[in-house]
Description:
The chain is an alpha+beta fold. Helix content is 60%, strand content 9%. The longest helix is centred in the C-terminal third of the chain and has 40 residues, at 104-143. The radius of gyration is 21 Å and the shape is elongated.
Amino acid sequence: MSKKHxxxxxxxxxxxxxxxxxxxxxxxxxxxxxxxxxxxxxxxxQVNRNRMRFPEDFMFQVTPNExxxxxxxxxxxxxxxxxxxxxxFTEHGVLMLSSVLNSPAAIAMNIRIMRVYVKFRSILSANxxxxxxxxxxxxxxMLQGERHDKHEMDILVLFDAIKQIINPxxxxxxxxxx
Length: 178
């Protein structure tokens, strides 16, 4: 990936590479290496040389089960023949990468990634605020008494639907295949 091409990576392309694992927003080592324009092996070498900079809440290795879940999200049958399980980096880990990958292109890409994380956080925050407002409105409607006219009932149904969109229930996924 050329320097010019790396800087043209869209925010949506970066956002697609952020996954939820163990309650953290993380990025895979191979995705970060691709964005930085370096081989995954080199990225992990730099991390291993600077291991003290990457505590467990900055970077961790996925389990075989987590890897299977990631594979099923991408609907792929293989992961490119890796011998080791991938490392994943939390937002703080990605930030720390800028101190070990010190090229101007890596720093520029790191800034872009950090901006996407900030946008992602603000979207989540806006959804939580909306959910809180809906719950307050719903609560005030419920306090008005047992009798509700059709309009109020429709509003309550709408609130419930919006809450499910914002905060969907965690349903176990059926495994793909046999």
